[in-house]
Specification:
This is AraC-like DNA-binding protein. InterPro entries: AraC-bd, Homeodomain-like_sf, HTH_AraC, HTH_AraC-typ_CS, RmlC-like_jellyroll, RmlC_Cupin_sf, Tscrpt_reg_AraC-type_HTH. The chain is built from 9 helices and 8 strands. The chain is α+β, with helices and mostly antiparallel strands. Strands 1, 2, 3, 4, 5, 6, 7 and 8 form an 8-stranded antiparallel β-sheet that branches. α1 runs antiparallel to α2 and α2 runs antiparallel to α6. The relative contact order is 0.11.
């Protein structure tokens, strides 16, 4: 995941009572820290209170209102994926405040602006997606075989000999039926979901190592025996080649450094 911005309403001098209808070009994750009220998303009204989380797809109109005021933290993420079939999700943090902790960490590393802090920030975005998906799955009718396949996928991102069809066959489900229930939970086919997991892993390696590792090396680390095939899958998912992505990230890193030097670190 590419985290583009982390913001917080509690930086303002007063608690907000409303935020007008607006849209963004990226996915927005909103964590409500204080206050209760109504959030309207595409004419659908949802109540919110402290600990509630809203997942808003790009270009989706939304607004918040509260009689006594509210404070929240928001994270804008590029290439975030739908959680389940629908893009809009209203979830709740766990008793340990896992998402609250991730949001606080994201704010800290977003302020830093350095190359390494940006890499950590993107990893936090990846982790946030996995945590929110876990929360969603726990609220659905559990299927241990489905959860088991997703765990197997995660454990075999770097395995070039991993056979997804064989892993699915071991669940005991008919292939077509398994694809239907998997798409119901994730909004993706098993193959596309696994390809996107590998691409996200490749992006995290690119962000971590910058230009110090070759495309071929990155591809091998993500379970691809053929670097050209890896490039085709990467472009299908991201809309650009791995090389173009690395150059884009390198350019952004240097622009952030230049701006940081110009403003004296503010």
């Amino acid at each position: 995941m590419d985290v583009m911005h982390v913001g917080s309403s509690d930086r303002m001098a007063r608690v907000m009572k409303s935020f007008p209808e607006h849209i963004h070009g990226y996915w927005e994750i909103i964590y409500n820290k204080q206050g209760s009220g109504i959030m309207t998303v595409k004419d659908q009204r949802y109540t919110f209170e402290p600990g509630d989380i809203a997942v808003i797809p790009p270009y989706t109109e939304h607004k918040k209102e509260s009689e006594k005021g509210f404070a929240d933290v928001c994270m804008f993420i590029k290439n975030f994926r739908p959680i389940g079939r629908s893009g809009i999700r209203i979830l709740r943090d766990d008793e340990e405040g896992t998402v609250d902790g991730l949001m606080r960490m994201a704010r800290r590393y977003y302020e830093g602006k350095s190359v390494y802090e940006k890499a950590v920030l993107n990893v936090i975005g990846d982790l946030l997606y996995q945590v929110l998906t876990l929360f969603y799955m726990k609220n659905q009718k559990k299927d241990l075989r489905l959860e088991g396949i997703m765990e197997v996928m995660q454990n075999n991102l770097d395995n070039p000999d991993f056979d997804l069809s064989s892993a699915i066959a071991k669940t005991g489900y008919a292939k077509d039926y398994f694809r239907r229930i998997f798409r119901t939970f994730t909004g993706e086919s098993p193959v596309n979901y696994f390809q996107k997991m590998r691409v996200e892993y490749a992006k995290s390696l690119m962000n971590q190592y910058s230009n110090s590792r070759s495309i071929k090396d990155i591809a091998s680390s993500c379970g691809f025996k053929d670097a050209l095939y890896f490039s085709r899958i990467f472009k299908k998912v991201e809309g650009m080649s791995p090389r173009a992505y690395m150059e884009q990230q390198f350019s952004c890193d240097h622009e952030l450094i230049r701006m940081n030097e110009k403003t004296g670190g503010r």
